[in-house]
Amino acid sequence: MTIASSSPPTRRPRAREDGGDGRLAAVFIAPALLGFLVFLLWPTLRGIYLSFTRFNLLTPAKWVGLDNYDRMVHDPIFWSSLKVTVEYVLINIGIQTVTALAVAVLLQRLTQSALLRGIVLTPYLMSNVVAGIVWLWILDTQLGIGNEIIGGLGFDHIPFLADKTWAIPTIALINVWRHVGYTALLLFAGLQAIPGDMYEAAKVDGASEWRMFWRITMPLLRPVLAVVLIMTVIGSFQVFDTVAVTTAGGPANATNVLQYYIYGSAFGRFQFGYASAMSVALLLVLSAITFLQYRLTRAGQTDLG
Questions:
Q1: Distance of CA 285 to the CA centre of its chain
Q2: Which residues pair with 63 in a beta bridge?
Q3: How many CB atoms lie under 10 A from the CB of residue 14?
Q4: Where is the ABC transmembrane type-1 domain (predicted)?
Q5: What does the alpha-carbon distance between residue 240 and residue 129 come to, in Å, rounded to a whole number?
Q6: What's the whole-number mean pLDDT along residues 199-208?
Q7: What is the pLDDT of residue 15?
Q8: What pLDDT was estimated at residue 10?
């Protein structure tokens, strides 16, 4: 009787050790991490330190404790700049969000043409400086084509960027024009994640477009909309270049937003310590607003099963 010899078990190739994957991941992460440390973390820590000093580039930084923050609390221009910035943010975010949401829904419900999405995004491809200069020419009181059209319709020319009442709303609308397409495409991407069979079932039940918008679109779009709001609010509080090329903070500080005041204090009056203190204050304000937005909008949760 022959006993069949059992063959030795086949050896499987050893899986790559975790250490190799970790080293490969570190290689890919290193450039972004280096940029984060050099261009974000270090300037932030340096700015926090300078906020407690008196520093003008010509002499070594001198520690003054909370003097800069005390000055900031009693500085009427700082509070005026903060008020102007909040006014700009409310106008910009309100109009931009509603318009972008409407454009995104129309793109999703009526057409999904890539060409149309490209046209919607076109203003965003222009820099803020170029957009500001173009609209400065268009809205010029004497020679601007915009005011020429207004005059042709029988109305008086409007000093959009030279009047205290019109200046901030005009700057807000310029930035709405530039950013609304990008915001709309972010919301459009969120709408694409909503299952289409929900709309089909709602149509079968006789739901109108308006009812489907409030009962399906808005609840399921909420996480994306919350993130978009957080991003746009942070960006709006940092408005600078449009103001710099159109009004330079005027007339009579009517558009002297906080970022422009910080810039003027640092590079116009060389008060880097005081400018750093205002920057830290802005950082704290944005952190608090972001935290509240995240909690109130439940950005980390979704109604999709």
A1: 15
A2: 53
A3: 6
A4: 82-293
A5: 10
A6: 86
A7: 47
A8: 55
CA distance 92 to 239: 11
Q: Are 141 and 64 in contact (CB under 8 A)?
A: no
pLDDT digits (tens, 9 = 90+) for 41-68: 999 999 999 999 999 888 899 999 999 9
Task: Select the more confidently predicted residue: 246 or 20.
Answer: 246
Encoded tokens for 29: 């992460």
Please tell me the predicted confidence (pLDDT) of residue 303.
Answer: 62
pTM across the whole model: 0.87
> Which DSSP string do the residues of 151-180 spell out, in sequence order?
HHTTPPP--TTTSTTTHHHHHHHHHHHHHH
Of the candidates 258, 253, 254, 299, the one whose C-alpha atom is nearest the C-alpha of residue 281 is: 258
Q: Is the peptide bond before 223 cis (omega within 30 degrees of 0)?
A: no
